[in-house]
Amino acid sequence: MTQPTNADPGQSGGFLAEIKDAVTTRAALLVLGVLALQLAFITSYVGAFHHPKPSEIPIAVSAPVAPVAEQSAKQLAALPGKPLDPRAVKDEATAARQIKNRDVDGALIIDPAGKTDKLLVASGAGASLSQAVEEVVGRVEQAQGRTFTIVDVAPAAAGDGRGLSSFYLVIGWCVGGYLCAAILAISAGARPANAARAVVRLGALFVYAVAAGLLGAVIAGPVLGALSGSIPALWGLGTLVVFAVGAITLAFQGLAGVVGIGLAILLVVVFGNPSAGGAYPYPLLPPFWKAIGPWLPPGAGTYAARSIAYFKGNDITGPLLVLSGWAVLGSAVTMACAVSRRGRAGAAVGSGLPDGPDDLDVSDPTAKAAGR
């Protein structure tokens, strides 16, 4: 007589049942979201950097005789593809002042009495930009049987290879901002339970931003010698960049829970970094990235950092307003979301629990228990 065997209940459903039990709908959707984020990252970076092309780079044109400068400016403006946006100025001193004020990115000083002109550039604004100006003007000069000497009126520091240190400093600050906000979600719930908790998170973020801003400025400046410029000014900028990005991340978490971290990465990393004007300043980027760059934290921060390091802080007001706007908006949305939740804290990231009662899978008994 055969004896009945005791079947293992864990094996009764087979392999497909195990997959169904292990991979929830929520997890599958999050993985698909990661895939979409990855593809957006590739598209954004390759799209921004695969074919840099100068477009309407602002330059000044000067000559001892005004009509000569005006005629030369017209010739440069008529170049195919409009790589330059020239404007005639009074003299070399005016041209140099406009470069240092960040009104133009270069200047051609014409000598009608000879065949050698002078090209003023500013490698502190990005080596790729100054090289683009040199190449475009060089082709025009060569076609006219002329040549030029190059004068760098705002050179990058000796330790600032290709003028990229400002960009990498700001990217580091941005990474710190959204990671700090994400860690708060990991440790204490993606969404703060009430307004008081939201204030605590914003306060903690601000303290972190002050420390991160100072340490980043000191490392890039005195420690590595990569950037010159005012340490207090860079410190203040770093504090604003870190807090703005962190506040944005907290706001996204307040709106979307754990998914908010991905939204912050989409905004700051996927769209913000390639459009920041780091490797290729704005006049070399495709139209889409050129348009959005100045309005996102990495772009505003990079432009401001270069202004502090090499242009005595000129033309910094706009970027600071952009960063302040993100900081205020992020803080306001974070507070509004906390008030609207009325004591319903979100689950900590990585806890395995849904972020709120609305996210519960009613078919899962553990989810029902968690939502009681």
Give the averaged pLDDT, no decimals: 87
Q: How many DSSP helices?
A: 13
Instruction: Give the quaternary arrangement of the chains.
Output: single chain
What structural class is derived from the secondary structure elements?
alpha/beta
Strands in their spatial order, largest beta sheet: 2-1-3-4-5
Uncertain spans: 357-372
Fraction in helix: 55-70%
Total strand segments:
5
Q: Report the order of strands and helices.
A: HHEHEHEEHEHHHHHHHH
The coarse silhouette is elongated
Could you characterize the architecture of this molecule?
This protein is an alpha/beta fold and 372 residues long. It has helices spanning 14-22, 25-49, 66-77, 92-100, 127-143, 165-188, 195-223, 231-256, 259-272, 287-292, 297-310, 317-341, 365-370; strands spanning 57-62, 84-88, 106-109, 116-121, 147-152. Strands 2-1-3-4-5 form a five-stranded mixed beta sheet, sandwiched between helices. Strand 3 (106-109) and strand 4 form a beta hairpin. The radius of gyration is 27 Å and the shape is elongated. Residues 357-372 have low confidence and may be disordered.
Which terms summarize this structure?
five-stranded mixed beta sheet; alpha/beta; disordered C terminus
Structural topology:
Blueprint: H1 14-22, H2 25-49, E1 57-62, H3 66-77, E2 84-88, H4 92-100, E3 106-109, E4 116-121, H5 127-143, E5 147-152, H6 165-188, H7 195-223, H8 231-256, H9 259-272, H10 287-292, H11 297-310, H12 317-341, H13 365-370
Parallel strand pairs: 1-2, 1-3, 4-5
Antiparallel strand pairs: 3-4
Helix pairs in contact: 2-9, 6-7, 6-8, 6-9, 6-11, 7-8, 7-12, 8-9, 8-11, 8-12, 11-12
